Amino acid sequence: MITAGIVGASGYTGRELMRILSRREDVSLRCATAHASAGQRVDAVYPSLAGAVDLTFGDLAGPGLDGLDVVFVALPSGEAMKVVPGLRARVGRVIDLGGDFRLSSPEAYRQYYKREHTATGLIREAVYGLPELNKSRIAAATLVANPGCYPTSALLPLLPPLMEGIIEREGIVIDSLSGVSGAGRSSSLEMSFCEVNESVRAYKVGTHQHIPEIESVLSGACGSPVTASFVPHLIPITRGIYTTIHARLTSPVTEAALYDLYDRFYADAPFVRIKRQIPQIQSVDRTNYCDIGFVLEPRTRQLIVLSVIDNLVKGAAGQAVQNMNIMTGLPEETGLR
Amino acid sequence: MITAGIVGASGYTGRELMRILSRREDVSLRCATAHASAGQRVDAVYPSLAGAVDLTFGDLAGPGLDGLDVVFVALPSGEAMKVVPGLRARVGRVIDLGGDFRLSSPEAYRQYYKREHTATGLIREAVYGLPELNKSRIAAATLVANPGCYPTSALLPLLPPLMEGIIEREGIVIDSLSGVSGAGRSSSLEMSFCEVNESVRAYKVGTHQHIPEIESVLSGACGSPVTASFVPHLIPITRGIYTTIHARLTSPVTEAALYDLYDRFYADAPFVRIKRQIPQIQSVDRTNYCDIGFVLEPRTRQLIVLSVIDNLVKGAAGQAVQNMNIMTGLPEETGLR
Amino acid sequence: MITAGIVGASGYTGRELMRILSRREDVSLRCATAHASAGQRVDAVYPSLAGAVDLTFGDLAGPGLDGLDVVFVALPSGEAMKVVPGLRARVGRVIDLGGDFRLSSPEAYRQYYKREHTATGLIREAVYGLPELNKSRIAAATLVANPGCYPTSALLPLLPPLMEGIIEREGIVIDSLSGVSGAGRSSSLEMSFCEVNESVRAYKVGTHQHIPEIESVLSGACGSPVTASFVPHLIPITRGIYTTIHARLTSPVTEAALYDLYDRFYADAPFVRIKRQIPQIQSVDRTNYCDIGFVLEPRTRQLIVLSVIDNLVKGAAGQAVQNMNIMTGLPEETGLR
Amino acid sequence: MITAGIVGASGYTGRELMRILSRREDVSLRCATAHASAGQRVDAVYPSLAGAVDLTFGDLAGPGLDGLDVVFVALPSGEAMKVVPGLRARVGRVIDLGGDFRLSSPEAYRQYYKREHTATGLIREAVYGLPELNKSRIAAATLVANPGCYPTSALLPLLPPLMEGIIEREGIVIDSLSGVSGAGRSSSLEMSFCEVNESVRAYKVGTHQHIPEIESVLSGACGSPVTASFVPHLIPITRGIYTTIHARLTSPVTEAALYDLYDRFYADAPFVRIKRQIPQIQSVDRTNYCDIGFVLEPRTRQLIVLSVIDNLVKGAAGQAVQNMNIMTGLPEETGLR
Asked: Which helix (H) or strand (E) is B210 found in, with range?
């Protein structure tokens, strides 16, 4: 029996973690903290969890987390780095779902997150939790930085052709469309129904904090610098990310060769499905899958790759549980089908 | 040329008023005040009005409103009663789009609006601005209380059969579905996209402030007490109200006789359309129409009446402009087709 | 191991059945037939089932169904009664998810379904599959008529106060709002995105085939005639039904007494949750729960009851699996949490 | 008074044309044909036009179109080329809203529209109706090919920097998101509410018929070949196109210089608004505007340009009326504010 806790459990990611973990008989969710909701029952805040989660939101300072095998940190970026150092002394393993431990460079952190990193000593210890890339390192880690939702949707389709040298390492274009839950459970005017419904807007063009995450993971995997232009768009759906990638081919390639490459690359990855058709978001709704499809465009010498994930599952809570499985020696798909 | 102003113009009703008035060549919108947005250009807050409204949000205390022919007050209920008394000395006519002057009873106001009325002297002067009921009184008024969105959608279908004695005066059931813009431009968690999308919830069941408005107007029109049970529901659309009414027939009636009654009752009402089919919200989107349809159910001796309006137009800004037209001696449909 | 099959599996109800059954280790889904899709792989039609259902759509005439323990029939009403008689000789138990075996009166069937019933001999054998009402009869049945989605949402909140004599048996008003999946997987213009989005429409007012189902079940449970007026509305969500019920109280009752009644009535019903707040659709999304709340309105002497279900789960596939569990001697909640 | 007619008026583009034209006092809409709906009143098919359009759908063969000043053809591509040659003898000017006369090359037409062009003689006569590019030629034309919705959204942001040589002519990436009305009023399963809602899908990647339209107009304007990769996506909104463009800078440029270029280029274009913020679809909903914003990304040496239009207005009916205004000597914005 794995004992687990969640810090910052009152947001959508926390709810999704509770939903996934509550279904398992081999995991015991012992504690869920939430600053603003402390003292309220979980099912009062989330009626859908009535009957599934019998907990009251606790406080980080309380003893509820002490000694747990795994603690998920679902705090906003900037908050996690204040909490994780102390937490590591109290629990076995920490999986941080925010951005604080994803970048190896404190300078990049400062530039994109607009604040100074205050736990730089832990940056090197943290393993980037993309199981399809780092499985063995995750298995040995006690601190995992769970990837961002956009990076997950961009890295999985880009890694095979980039590492194989099939596409150029610069000039990559990534346009992503995200459901609104990606912005968290928030009460801003911008995320109110009337402002989002029947509309679309791009945001943080050229400045999004997921840019250095994407570029540094790709560069690390390729062993040389990769640059990519990334534009996120907010669209009126609750869940899901659609990512469309354009990259220039280094030399002509056949469709069959590419399918072969992708199929081999992800032969042992239970949550990546290489599709022979254009992916759509509905196919991965509430699942931990990333579906990938592609089109070769000889006219422009481009490879167009398209991917879909559920931002709250493969883009957050599901991937975190996948990491927990790996860290605790379980098959990575346990409880995620 | 009618000179006009808007107090509290930064909400959705204010925007809709600006949109409607800016199209007219016989109206000059001179001033739009907005406490929180004072000093900002209107088209910075509402990019869709770029090129149409060349104004900067002003302050209520400034001289911009002085001497205007008509001022629309689009403040939240409770705010208008603080402002309207002073405003009447400065301008020709006031049309209040909130709830402060709709109820003739200060006691009912206290009970349903949960506060004391502070301008009771004006309650008797205010004319309830439902043109299809009160046209001549509106023409003579200098203070009009523009009806609520739900009451507009319920009163228009109920007045003919009730005043004709075809349905019983008690046991009336009104179930309404409203788009989210009815809640105003707000940043509450409850109105955030993810909380509203793919969901429905009823609210203020039995306690909504439009209950006494509906009952008192119906009672006044019938000359004896009418009671109705009203349940509003929030649904994931931006604009529109769908109202379904159930009432018991006092005696058998034919469909033909009912159509005849409705057609005659609204023969001179340019914005009420009696339909031979079930209404749908799309038909009235961004129009000042109220579409009404009905079904007789002999099995249960009930009359079922269904109506649709755009809550921001016939339910708010459009009806206010209709009232302005009547108050200033213009054909009531001017600028509203 | 229960062996199971689905006839008419290519619609949304069929997909939901496959989704629910594929998660179970104690059920083996052996056959899924679909006339138009016969020969196609299930995961080609429904990419979301890739990896979960490894079947090709078969044909009803093939041997795939022979000898199975339970067969779900998810055909349109009118088709099931042609198929079920022959099917019963081939399989152990049949659960029909359409309307053909829900009404005990062939006359009512003719009136509301607009066709002659051709398997009247089976009507008496079929047990109405509302587990909260008929659990022991379901356990003994070999043919179950799974309730309609609207009736499920109306019967569960109405049964306790009606059977207890707290509300009147006539004058009941039921207004329901349904997501579009209730209309099935169809390519009609009326269900196209642009016609449904940002709109609402009532339909089949006074003529819907669920009216006699609701009235006959309520009348049977009360032992005397119950009449109800029912208006279904189509709203722009994919899943979910919101039902608002108005009924006249026979005599005054306290809120506490009513909660007590409901709590007792459903004490052994694992999928009915009596809420102390107004229900919302999101709380039951993709679950087999029916959430019920109510408001007493002394002013109008009415009881207002509100319920929510997921129309594809408790309103169709989930309830069918609940019935399968009962018919095969399993705990009714098996595989449905 | 301009006399006007519409061929193929029962689709969404036809409805939008009727909505726009019916507001004008200087245009008399005399005839609307629709094959499948012939004989039905327009307001029976479109209740929202009740009171605005007093016409019955006619037949193309009838005399209703003879002698009209302007006829809009809103038929599917492939149908228009059968009809336009004969129509030109009967009416003064023809504006075709489909794709049949947009490409100057019959070979490109065959490749992308998958059929042979049968009116090649008219291709050279037709003027491409993008007013911001071809105003004087449109003024003299009797046959105008109204641009596609996607091309309108891509050409307006691309023309200034391409013609000025600021961006490279190859490697351009265009990712567009479109509302569902762009697919027309159709009853396909793919466009049904449940298949579109809460999902996104790309389609016709690398094969969309708007690719040669975009490339040929850009190449013509620049005087040398331009290639672009274009990926359209279907998203769950009714109206609107969001286009995100990535292009490589030929040499460094300042933001100020770019704003200056755009502002000058569109100084006389009443429907192009150059924004200092990221555009959003809501800002142009039901308007004829194209809003354009951009971001310079020095890190990747890219220019990212973003544009929004309402696909049924600037992307179809509104632009067609703009063309009609120009062809008949009126100010181009007449009736479009």
From this structure: helix B210-222
D307 shares a domain with D178: yes
In this structure, the strands spanning D228-234 and D172-178 are parallel
Q: Is B185 exposed, middle or buried (0-12, 13-18, 19+ CB in 10 A)?
A: middle
Touching C (3+ Cβ pairs <8 A), the chains are A, B, D
Chain D: list its partners (3+ Cβ pairs within 8 Å): A, B, C
Q: Do B193 and A186 touch (CB under 8 A)?
A: no
ipTM of the predicted assembly exceeds 0.90: yes
D-chain residues near A197 (CB < 8 A): 237
| Distance (Å) from the alpha carbon of B93 to chain D's nearest alpha carbon | 29
Contacts of B242 in chain C (CB under 8 A): 200-202, 233
Q: Which residues of chain D have pLDDT under 70?
A: none
Domain that holds residue A157: 150-310
**Which residues of A are less than 8 Å from C337 in CB distance?**
23, 51-52
Distances (CA, A) of A334 to A4, A25, A142, B120: 15, 11, 19, 67
- Residues ≥6 apart with Cβ < 8 Å to C125: C141, C142, C143
CB–CB of A192 and B198 under 8 A?
no
Q: Are residues A155 and A299 in the same domain?
A: yes
For residue A41, being part of any structural domain is answered with yes
Domain boundary among D125, D142, D171: D125
Q: Give the tens place of pLDDT for each residue, C204-244.
A: 999 999 999 999 999 999 999 999 999 999 999 999 999 99
Which residues of A are known to be catalytic? Answer: 149
Chain A residue numbers touching C47 (CB-CB < 8 A): 275, 277, 280, 283, 291
In this structure, are D64 and D202 located in the same domain?
no
| Contact flag B47-D198 (C-beta cutoff 8 Å) | no
Cα-Cα-Cα-Cα dihedral sign, residues A206, A208, A209, A210? negative
Q: A70-87 b/e with 16+ CB inside 10 Å = b?
A: bbbbbbebbbbbebbeeb
- Does the active-site annotation cover D149? yes
Give the pLDDT confidence score for residue D186 in this predicted structure: 83
Q: What is the pLDDT of residues D96-106, one digit of tens each?
A: 999 999 999 99
Provide the domain count of chain A.
2
Counting one residue from B and one from C, how many pairs have CB atoms under 8 Å apart?
147
* pTM beyond cutoff 0.95: yes
Q: Which of A187, A197, A236 sits opposite B187 (nearest CB)?
A: A187
According to DSSP, residue A92 is labeled S
Residues of D within 8 A of C198 (CB-CB) are 238
Distance from CA of C5 to the nearest CA of D (A): 25
Distance from CA of A48 to the nearest CA of C (A): 4
- Reading the block at residue A45, the tokens are 């805040």
End-to-end CA distance of chain B: 19
Residues contacting A166, CB < 8 A, separation 6+: A249, A250, A251, A253, A258, A261, A303
Q: Kindly report the CATH number assigned to the domain that includes residue B7.
A: 3.40.50.720
Tell me which amino acid residue A198 is: E
CA angle, B10 as apex, B9 and B14 as ends, to 5°? 45
Residue A199 is nearest to which of D199, D248, D281, comparing CB atoms?
D281
CA atoms of B72 and B331, how far apart (whole Å): 19
> Which of C175, C203, C239 shows the shortest C-beta gap to B175?
C175
CATH number for the domain spanning A263: value is 3.30.360.10
C105 to chain D, closest Cα gap in Å: 34
Is residue A191 domain-shared with residue A296, that is, in the same domain?
yes
Looking at the structure, tell me whether residues B104 and B200 fall in a common domain.
no
Exposed/middle/buried for B298, CB within 10 Å: 0-12, 13-18, 19+? exposed
Angle (CA) C271 C273 C278, round 5°: 140
Q: Do D175 and A244 touch (CB under 8 A)?
A: yes
CA dist B10 and B17 (Å) reads 10
